[in-house]
Amino acid sequence: MGSGTRTAAMVLGGQIGVTLVIAAIAGWFWGAKPAWSAATGGLISIVTTAFFALRVFVGGSNAPLNVIVRSFYAGEVQKLILTAVLFYAAIRWMDLSFLPLFVTYALTLLMYWVVLPFSLESR
């Protein structure tokens, strides 16, 4: 497993953990709707992170640098579009509480920063 793949796995694991904890707390204190909303917000982040990781790391580390950079930028743009589509679908067709939805999404995004110090390699 390469460094990028390992980092993506760490981010995804953190996002799954945060989603489960926030959804459990929301369910315990406020009920099913906030818990489902929190789970949905976390799931949007998890799905888009997994999509990005697959899009960027599927070519492997042996690809030329320009191909890696191009796949990174294309993956990021596609991730943003997918995020917008998933939020639109969730808000449009699901009965959700907005605060748990967006708070959980925001907290799962923090996993990128939490994982960063652990993913840096000393050279």
What does this structure look like?
The chain is mainly alpha-helical and 123 residues long. Helices cover 85% and strands 0% of the residues. The protein contains five helices and no strands. The protein has helices at 3-30, 32-57, 65-93, 98-109, 111-119. α2 (32-57) packs antiparallel against α3 (65-93) and α2 (32-57) packs parallel to α4. The longest helix has 29 residues, at 65-93. The radius of gyration is 16 Å and the shape is flat.
Please supply descriptive tags for the structure shown above.
123 residues, mainly alpha, 5 helices, 85% helix, flat
Please give the largest β-sheet: none
Provide the succession of SSEs: HHHHH
Distance between the termini: 18 Å
What's the rounded overall pLDDT mean? 91
Number of helices: 5
Query: In percent terms, what proportion of residues is strand?
Result: under 5%
Q: List unreliable stretches of 5+ residues.
A: none
CA-based shape: flat
User: What's the number of extended β-strand segments?
Assistant: 0
Which class best fits the helix and strand makeup?
mainly alpha
Q: Could you tell me the radius of gyration in angstroms?
A: 16 Å
**How much helical structure, as a percent, in the residues?**
over 70%
